[in-house]
Specification:
The chain is mainly beta and 269 residues long. The protein has one domain (26-255). Helices cover 10% and strands 48% of the residues. It has helices spanning 7-18, 149-153, 209-218; strands at residues 37-45, 50-61, 64-73, 78-88, 90-101, 109-114, 119-125, 131-137, 163-169, 175-191, 194-206, 225-230, 236-242, 251-255. The chain has a 14-stranded antiparallel β-sheet. A hairpin with a 5-residue loop joins strand 12 (225-230) and strand 13. Helix 1 packs antiparallel against helix 3. The protein is globular and about 60 Å long.
Length: 269
């Protein structure tokens, strides 16, 4: 314990020498083009308690895709994200807009990203309820992946080396971070009586710079996220375990099927 006070100053002084800089980002090639989709989702705690019902609504016009993900919480909270991207040879973000409000989110947030100009605008409420606006132009790389993670994971090669993409963290002050994607292996699941396997991906945030070097020591390193993708000729999302906001709990997102009210079979009185 006596030596610990000297540790942080030493790390700070040496950070520029020890930190290798931003990890190189990689745009993901289009292997499977996206089209018309309406998926039904559920958001749960890791213990299985339902929190919100969700819809994934997607449409495509030529090489331009618009995808909206909405979660409506039982307590009235809303998570609403719309991403627009192109899928010409490689996926490229055009714009992203995410809104979070209600009791489920300690800090209401509205963030918009212009993928072409790099303009990021964040509207939020501080601890006193006052409305604040942060607007900043970032030097965004071509691999910016806000709102695109599930799409990209359906197109990466599971046997390829780890993929690194960029993200703008949805915090009051926009921050560009790296997301390192690795493969943890295949895991079995079933649909009805059919056995299947999904690829388990682990997503780790690399903050970078002095902040990234010190984050684990200060207890601020974001937790890893996990996503499971069914492979094959038509890859599909199976489930994920991830926080929806910075510093938030890990929640599970899964596909669900429609549930019909009990009634007599069609044609019977």
């Amino acid at each position: 314990m006596l030596g610990r006070p000297k540790l942080l100053p030493c790390l700070i002084a040496c950070a520029s020498l020890l930190w290798p800089g931003a990890l190189p980002g990689q745009t993901v090639a289009v292997r499977h083009t996206e089209g018309l989709v309406h998926g039904f989702l559920i958001l749960r705690t890791l213990e299985g308690t339902p929190l919100a019902d969700g819809d994934l609504i997607q449409s495509a016009r030529g090489e331009r895709v618009t995808s909206r993900l909405v979660f409506r919480f039982k307590d009235g909270s809303i998570h609403d994200e719309t991403v627009v991207y192109s899928q010409r040879q490689r996926f490229r973000l055009i714009s992203d807009h995410v809104t979070q409000k209600g009791p489920a989110f300690p800090q209401p947030l509205d963030m918009s990203i212009d993928g072409g100009s790099g303009q990021v605008t964040v509207r939020y409420s501080d601890e006193h309820g006052a409305q604040k606006v942060e607007s900043e132009r970032l030097d965004v790389p071509p691999d910016l992946a806000n709102g695109l993670i599930l799409t990209l994971l359906k197109n990466v090669q599971p046997g390829a080396p780890p993929t690194t993409v960029s993200l703008v963290a949805a915090t009051p002050k926009p921050r560009l971070v790296k997301l390192v994607i690795t493969v943890a292996g295949d895991e079995s699941f079933s649909t009805g009586g059919a056995a299947r396997k999904a690829t388990h991906y682990v997503l780790k945030v690399e903050i970078g710079g002095i902040a990234g070097l010190l984050a684990p020591l200060l207890g601020k390193q974001p937790p890893d996220s996990h996503v499971w993708i069914l492979g094959g000729e038509a890859p599909a999302f199976v489930k994920s375990e991830q926080p929806l906001y910075v510093g938030g709990p890990i929640w599970r997102i899964e596909l669900v099927s429609p549930v019909w009210p009990r009634s007599e079979p069609t044609g019977q009185k």
